[in-house]
Design a protein that fits this description.
Layout (H helix, E strand, L loop, with lengths): L18 E11 L5 E8 L4 E3 L2 E3 L6 H13 L1 E15 L5 E14 L9 E6 H7 L3 H8 L1 H6 L17
Parallel strand pairs: 1-6
Antiparallel strand pairs: 1-2, 1-4, 2-3, 2-7, 5-6
Length: 165
């Protein structure tokens, strides 16, 4: 049984214009065939989360997700199925919507940039434990079933439990 640690609250009471953001749940196969996901650490907030960021004016959400992932991880990715979105109030009291997609790295230098000081490739269970926000666990919980829909695109997709087929 996993030991759960307290997570930061996802609640807020603010109002204001909606902030649009997008990001990715980047995944790969480990040497033993298991599912691994990439988490990023932001020293400014001392949190572990999925790479994401705000959309630029006129930018569509998929383009934003790819740009933010590249800026924060140095990885260029292929976009897969859309995962659950997050809706919450940010630290400035604004409504925020973050859309996520499953992603596979296809190129890149992997240098850390843009507010990130550390990345970690973790098995799905370990990633769920390390995440700082409950809302991020919903995104990762949806990843294995979404990858089943990929069939044989990219690395072999796991079954609905996250185990390799």
């Amino acid at each position: 049984m996993a030991v759960l640690r307290p997570r930061r609250s996802d609640r807020g009471d603010g109002c204001g214009p909606e902030v649009r953001a997008a990001g990715g749940a980047i995944w790969r196969r480990s040497a033993d065939g298991g599912l691994e996901v990439l988490l990023v650490h932001r020293p400014r907030y001392d949190d572990w989360s999925l790479p994401k960021g705000k959309c630029d004016r006129g930018e569509d959400d998929v383009a934003c997700a790819l740009r933010e992932v590249a800026e924060e991880t140095g990885l260029e990715c292929e976009v897969g199925p859309e995962l659950p979105s997050q809706h919450y109030v940010d630290q400035k009291g604004r409504d925020k919507v973050v859309r996520y997609w499953a992603m596979v790295a296809v190129a890149g230098h992997g240098r850390l940039e843009h507010e990130i000081d550390e990345v970690a490739w973790l098995a799905l269970d370990a990633a769920l434990e390390r995440l700082s926000y409950v809302r991020d666990t919903v995104v990762l919980d949806a990843l294995p079933p979404a990858l089943v829909a990929l069939g044989h695109r990219g690395p072999a997709a796991p079954d609905a439990t996250g185990r390799p087929r």
